[in-house]
Automatic annotation (TrEMBL):
<comment type="function">
    <text>Metal-dependent phosphatase that shows phosphatase activity against several substrates, including fructose-1-phosphate and fructose-6-phosphate. Its preference for fructose-1-phosphate, a strong glycating agent that causes DNA damage rather than a canonical yeast metabolite, suggests a damage-control function in hexose phosphate metabolism. Has also been shown to have O-methyltransferase activity that methylates glutamate residues of target proteins to form gamma-glutamyl methyl ester residues. Possibly methylates PCNA, suggesting it is involved in the DNA damage response.</text>
</comment>
<dbReference type="GO" id="GO:0032259">
    <property type="term" value="P:methylation"/>
</dbReference>
<keyword id="KW-0808">Transferase</keyword>
<dbReference type="GO" id="GO:0006974">
    <property type="term" value="P:DNA damage response"/>
</dbReference>
<dbReference type="GO" id="GO:0016791">
    <property type="term" value="F:phosphatase activity"/>
</dbReference>
<keyword id="KW-0479">Metal-binding</keyword>
<dbReference type="GO" id="GO:0046872">
    <property type="term" value="F:metal ion binding"/>
</dbReference>
<feature type="domain" description="Damage-control phosphatase ARMT1-like metal-binding">
    <location>
        <begin position="19"/>
        <end position="418"/>
    </location>
</feature>
<keyword id="KW-0489">Methyltransferase</keyword>
<keyword id="KW-0464">Manganese</keyword>
<dbReference type="GO" id="GO:0051998">
    <property type="term" value="F:protein carboxyl O-methyltransferase activity"/>
</dbReference>
<dbReference type="GO" id="GO:0005634">
    <property type="term" value="C:nucleus"/>
</dbReference>
<comment type="similarity">
    <text>Belongs to the damage-control phosphatase family. Sugar phosphate phosphatase III subfamily.</text>
</comment>
<dbReference type="InterPro" id="IPR039763">
    <property type="entry name" value="ARMT1"/>
</dbReference>
<dbReference type="Pfam" id="PF01937">
    <property type="entry name" value="ARMT1-like_dom"/>
</dbReference>
<keyword id="KW-0949">S-adenosyl-L-methionine</keyword>
<dbReference type="InterPro" id="IPR002791">
    <property type="entry name" value="ARMT1-like_metal-bd"/>
</dbReference>
């Protein structure tokens, strides 16, 4: 089956071009600024060695920014991490696609590749500057965005706890409605990523539940009914056979979005629509706001320790879900490779086998959508299952607000109509999809 070409900064005027030219350098500049500002903390913690390390990291980032600005060839990674070899092989593969006197570079290679590569090079800069090896350059902005969403988080935790009290008496129709509601909250939570805003405050300030009805017309593909069928069918089958129903959530951003995902996961267990939730996070800092294990644990501890009854109730329930292993956290290194998801079976067969055990996989966010569809120039009307290019470990669903110019599975004329009425519909984060594929 032939697939269209990759989005790339080589298409001048495209969003990829704008990202590589302006947005990525801006993010790098913020990284440099953060490391610089943390100097005295490094000195305090590690003494002179910390200062030397800070200088080394800064030099690495300035060099990286210069390579990006001047469209230099992409370089092999020099650290020695479990994924280094895979990254270097990927570069060789990209090289093999070009003629001999051409080299993969920032403005010529696929956008997905170079953008992922930037975050991996940032990590390399930190890793090669011991003792800073575990410093997360984005931690500060992730934590701030959590605190700025306090009111919205309180509203959600309160809603969830009230729902939990009556959940046993809720009939099927109302359960379905509540599921729809919390799914939409998790969808719109994806507006709050910090890579699109280059680290600027992008948090949820108002109660997310109040605006759901108004936002419904912004959901361009809404396959919630299919999800409900999968989950409610699982629940009915289970009551006769006492088996498990496993939902996997491939997480995206920390901060408010993560809380909306945890709320949804809590609801799935409390309502018995699922019996086990597996979360998948990132093993290194990624796309500014993506969730790492430390963000995941930090968030739950923040809720637990909060000075608000329902927030702390949520936090302690979630802690105990982890202890009981009905919630499980995984961070496979595949999620921070540049590969499209149709390559999982080949590159990370262990992860593929794990995903096959799921009854439903929810992929949160824009980057996951780009990886699901290969970040290619698909026509708007190509079916989602075709764009997945044979990636079908289990029934799956993308829950994403549009922040990159790629969208499939639309009705005839729908994309064109949006383009003429709202030219920025694909990158503004104002539109979303809940897009399902059951093909196995
Ligand atoms: O956090 P999300 O939803 O994956 O969004 C990140 C997206 O935003 C962008 O930074 C916009 O360019 C993309 O690189 C990426 O697809
Ligand atoms: Mn993200």
């Amino acid at each position: 089956m032939s697939v269209p070409c990759s989005l790339s900064a080589r298409f001048k005027g495209s969003f990829a071009y704008f990202t590589v030219k302006d947005r990525l350098p801006q993010i790098l500049t913020k990284v440099i600024d953060t490391v610089h500002r943390t100097k005295s903390a490094f000195l305090e913690e590690y003494g002179e060695e910390g200062i030397e390390a800070e200088k080394k990291a800064l030099a690495a980032f300035s060099k990286l920014r210069n390579e990006l600005h001047t469209d230099k060839p992409l370089l092999l990674l020099m650290d020695n991490l479990p994924d280094t070899e895979l990254w270097n092989q990927y570069l060789e593969h990209q090289q093999s696609l070009l003629s001999e006197n051409d080299q993969p570079s920032w403005f010529k290679s696929p956008w997905l590749y170079v953008e992922c590569y930037m975050y991996r090079r940032i990590h390399e800069g930190i890793v090669l500057s011991p003792p800073l090896c575990s410093f997360d350059v984005f931690k500060e902005v992730k934590n701030e965005s959590f605190f700025q969403s306090q009111q919205a988080i309180i509203a959600l935790c309160t809603y969830l706890q009230e729902l939990a009290k009556k959940i046993k008496d809720v009939g099927e129709e109302q359960l379905k409605e509540e599921f729809f509601k919390l799914l939409q909250v998790s969808l719109w939570g994806n507006k709050c990523d910090l890579s699109i805003s280059a680290g600027q405050d992008n948090s949820q300030k108002s109660s997310p539940l109040a605006s759901l009805t108004d936002l419904q017309s912004c959901i361009l593909v809404n396959d919630t009914d299919h999800l409900w069928t999968v989950l409610s069918h699982g629940m009915k089958m289970r009551s006769s056979q006492a088996s498990v129903s496993r939902v996997d959530i491939v997480l995206d951003n920390a901060g408010f979005e993560l809380v909306t995902d945890l709320i949804l996961a809590d609801f799935l267990l409390a309502s018995k629509l699922a019996t086990e939730i597996h979360f998948h996070g990132k093993s290194i800092p990624w796309y500014v706001s993506d969730t790492t294990k430390s963000d995941f644990q930090w968030t739950i501890q923040q809720l637990r320790a909060a000075n608000h009854r329902w927030m702390s109730k949520c936090g302690s329930n979630w802690d105990s879900n982890l202890k009981k292993e009905v919630w499980l956290y995984h961070d496979h290194l595949f999620w921070t490779l540049p590969h499209e998801f149709c390559k999982v079976a080949q590159v990370a067969p262990d992860l593929y086998t794990e995903l096959q055990k799921s009854d439903l996989i929810l992929f949160k966010g824009d980057l996951n959508y780009r990886k699901l569809t290969g970040d290619r120039k698909w026509d708007f009307t190509v079916p989602f299952s075709q764009a997945l290019n044979r990636f079908h470990p289990a029934p799956l669903c993308s829950i994403r607000t549009l922040k990159a110019d790629i969208q499939v599975g639309l009705k005839c004329g729908q994309g064109e109509q949006l383009t003429s009425s709202e030219p920025t519909w694909m990158i503004s984060g104002q539109y979303g999809v809940i897009q399902f594929s059951a093909l196995i």
